[in-house]
Specification:
Helices cover 42% and strands 21% of the residues. It is an alpha/beta fold and 197 residues long. The chain has a domain of 135 residues: Rossmann fold (3-Layer(aba) Sandwich). It is globular and about 45 Å long. It starts with 7 loop residues before the first strand and ends with a helix.
């Protein structure tokens, strides 16, 4: 597989309400040559989300069929919903020499780094404040049950353990969005230039 890789994968790792969606949209709007992986999920579509752009929204049965068929590079269950990255999509992008960006959790980062040599992958952690700040931001967008909040808190604590292992940390609290966009853009520009030389 390594001999077939000509592209580069940028993994965006971030807790809920960290602004990762805004940052990913900024990159894909300003760098159209960067491909975005579209994950499969069993969760319900949220207002404004587009099938095939934000996620492939599939049933749990469909997801489990793909899992049994070995179609996922990695998959995880989070807050009672399944999320997975299709092998076919990622491998096609890397073989075609594309810089590809993907939002992913800690389990996914570890799975991908066990399959793709590190020189073809960059991990960026979006740091957007402590748990109380993120919880308040998330609840201002949509209500969540105590159970879902508890699951997300566990997820937050797990991901924080990887923060210092990331290749880059981009700070994105409420006053730093433009600076976060600039920093992430600089990282992506450098990867593009090195990938296409």
């Amino acid at each position: 597989m390594e001999n077939m890789i000509r592209g580069h994968l940028v993994l965006i790792m971030a807790p809920m309400a960290s602004g990762k969606g805004v940052l990913l949209s900024h990159i894909t709007q300003h760098y159209p040559e960067v491909k975005r992986l579209v994950s499969c999920t069993t969760r319900a579509k949220r207002p404004g989300e587009v099938e095939g752009k934000d996620y492939f929204f599939i049933s749990r049965d469909q997801f489990e069929q793909k899992t049994q068929a070995g179609e996922f590079l990695e998959w995880a269950e989070f807050s009672d919903n399944l999320y997975g990255t299709l092998k076919s999509q990622l491998l096609a992008n890397l073989e075609n020499g594309n810089v590809t960006i993907n939002e992913i959790d800690l389990h996914g980062v570890r799975s991908i780094l066990s399959l793709i040599p590190k020189e073809y992958c960059t991990v960026v952690y979006i740091n957007a404040g402590d748990w109380e700040t993120l919880k308040a931001r998330a609840l201002s967008r949509a209500p969540m049950s105590e159970r879902e909040l508890a699951l997300r808190h566990i997820h937050y604590l797990e991901e924080m353990t990887y923060k210092d292992s990331a290749d880059f940390i981009v700070d994105n609290d409420d006053l730093q969005l433009e600076e976060a966009k600039r920093k992430l853009s600089t990282i992506v520009e450098s990867i593009i230039s090195h990938t296409h030389t």
